[in-house]
Amino acid sequence: MTTQRIGFLIWPSTKALTLALAEEVLRVAQKVHPDVTYDLAFLQAEAPAEGDWRLPGEPWTGRLENCQKLFLLADEPPQAVGAALGAALKQLVRSGCVVGGLSAGVYPLAQLGLLDGYRAAVHWRWQDDFAERFPKVIATSHLFDWDRDRLTACGGMSVVDLLLAVLARDHGAELAGAVSEELVVERIREGGERQRIPLQNRLGSSHPKLTQAVLLMEANIEEPLTTDEIAQHVCVSRRQLERIFKQYLNRVPSQYYLELRLNKARQMLMQTSKSIIQIGLSCGFSSGPHFSSAYRNFFGATPREDRNQRRSSSPFELSSVPAERG
Fold it and tell me: What DSSP line would sit under 205-249, residue for residue?
């Protein structure tokens, strides 16, 4: 019987749930299969601020060693990795350790260049920011990715999916199935599944024409379709389409489409360094004033005001979105 040492390197932003999901899968595996043994080590990457929630783990003291696998955990992108910790992580990788990033734990790996040329599952909230900051990483919208000796999961329940995949590869599908049954997991999801929940669940409706119409809108943000064009594509009249949107979403198609584009623009404002004009054009607005006016009417502030306010209230966005010129 061989004991495998698995480490968890935890940043202060980590939610208790993220760590608990990963730990529970491994503990249940040991419970249902006596030949599976793990030595779990918990290390704090940074000292938590006074009054912050303290997760399990000893402070990192300068060395990382003897781990067959090491998972980095964060639920908000860390600012930077200290030089000493970065050197220790690189040395651990050179020694043959498999490393993984759970949720925003992909950020420290990317900052150190340890994901360059690898696929990495990135939560949909951070994909614009991550792709701009780390162009050498192949960011995906998968639930999780296992690319050679790099493991990444986008967060939430995908942590369970990734750890079940680890169990299946290390010990066989039967053990992974037994653990999922013990945890009452309905099904074991594949890593390549997309992380966004089905559209009909998000809309609260299973009307097929509504689903088709919204999918068309989401696929045509930069060059919006007219309501007539959408109706034609989904094979209903304009009046029928408007009635469906009014019944299920309490708004007309053009209003829903505008809100969709504005929310995409806001995400880009907060996560990328693109200019306000670039963002407006990429979200289907014909000019800067048109974009600014629509944005202010919907969010109560201009794009510039909103971006500046978010910067001042969030150190992450302050560091990831440089000041705009002009």
Answer: ---HHHHHHHHHHHH-SSSPPPHHHHHHHTTS-HHHHHHHHHHHH
pLDDT of residue 119: 94
Q: What is the mean pLDDT of each run of 10 residues along the chain (326 residues)?
A: 84 88 91 85 79 72 82 90 90 91 94 94 87 91 92 92 91 88 84 67 70 90 94 94 90 93 88 87 92 92 86 47 38
Question: What 3-state DSSP class applies to 145?
Answer: strand
Q: What is the pLDDT of residue 315?
A: 44
Give the pLDDT of residue 240.
94
Query: What is d(CA 301, CA 309) in angstroms, rounded to the nearest whole number?
Result: 10
Residue 79 is given by DSSP the state S
Hunting for tokens 């989401």 — which residue is that?
218
CATH number for 3-182: choose from 3.40.50.880, 3.40.50.300, 3.40.50.1820, 3.40.50.150: 3.40.50.880
Q: How far apart are the first and last CA of the chain?
A: 65
User: 3-182 with 199-320: one CATH topology?
Assistant: no
CA dihedral angle for residue 19, residue 179, residue 100, residue 52, rounded to 10 degrees: 0
Break the chain into its structural domains and give their ranges.
3-182, 199-320
**Span 199-320 CATH architecture:** Orthogonal Bundle (1.10)
Are 157 and 18 in contact by the 8 Å Cβ rule? The answer is no
Distance CA 121, CA 98 (A): 16
The letter for the amino acid at 121 is A
Q: What is the pLDDT at residue 323?
A: 39
pLDDT of residue 50: 65
Residue 283 to residue 293: CA distance in whole angstroms? 14
Residue with the two structure tokens 């949909």: 124
The answer to whether the CB of 284 falls within 8 A of the CB of 225 is no
pLDDT reported for residue 319: 38
Q: What is the pLDDT, as a whole number, of residue 124? A: 85
Taking the C-alpha atoms of residue 303 and residue 321, their distance in angstroms, rounded to an integer, is 14
